[in-house]
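Ligand: dihydroflavine-adenine dinucleotide. Inputs:
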Amino acid sequence: RSAFIALSRNAALRTFSERSQLGRRMSSRFVAGMTLDEVVHAAEALQRLGIASTLDSLGENVTTPNEARHSADIYHRLLDAIQTRPTMNANVSVKLTQMGMDLDPGLAEEIVSGLVDHAVAANTFVRVDMEGSEYTKATIDMVRRLHAKPGNRGHVGIVIQAYLHRSQEDIRTLTGDGIRIRLCKGAYKEPSNLAFPEKKDVDANFVKLTHQLLTSGIYHGIATHDEDMISATRKFVRENNIDPKTFEFQMLYGIRRDLQKSLVHDGYNTRVYVPFGTEWYPYFMRRLAERPANALFIAKSLLKQ
Ligand code: FDA
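Predicted complex:
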């Protein structure tokens, strides 16, 4: 896992991979395409299976304000595409470092605020993804400010990572404001004073936090491919007479498609995170880090082509 996370930050390998045809073919397992048309097409195909989507234009840690503004333009075009397809159940996910957070947090907030205004007009929703722990507090503070603006309630939400020790407290604060949360395990490398190092502790916290979310009266997303986490959620919902329509399961594009379909079949709201764009490398490497066997699986499928 650590090796793939380290590789995800390797600039030379990133440039080489993103430009090569082979790299693009490899990434297509987890990335819906390079263009906006391709991602909309993927969302429409999911919708035909009864699956909603959250569209993500790949990119993170931009280094100039122009890059940040360019990233925002792509999101405005995505929101336009959603607005002109009122029957499509889609929203967007953004990363603050893609909106200039490392350069100027004020710029990032201005940009995301513009996206939330657009989402309000398009009657959809902006989810701010959670990145490494150096951004946790700033992300929470920004989302709370944006959510508190008149008209924005229910149109902007956040992600909480079950591997962080602080998450229970953060959920208390955010649900107190009425903010929608996506709960995931967490995909970055964190020190043990901030995050549980052992999978069993992350899993136990995930279950505990799921209970906290499902009893909050707010529509949240439970984002996992882990069958144990999904079974625990389903059991809790059953035993506590929670309406399955008051939350959704979320998964990543290309991962456990069988499970995605079976949740829909069983009547659960299901949403898939659909990333697209040329800057796929760090995202792709984090997916390999979660399941190194994927590297072998992808190599085999390329050899078969
Ligand atoms: P876990 O990693 O324990 O895996 C359980 C099982 O799921 C595996 O045994 C395997 O069967 C399957 N699986 C998991 N990952 C797989 C993969 N890559 N390929 C194939 N099978 C796989 N993280 C973050 O830090 N910030 C964020 O904003 C988000 N956003 C986000 C959105 C959505 C919709 C999802 C589903 C996930 C995220 N994540 C994230 C990523 C998340 O933190 C986590 O790294 C992955 O979801 C993997 O964790 P699981 O809960 O799936 O369990």
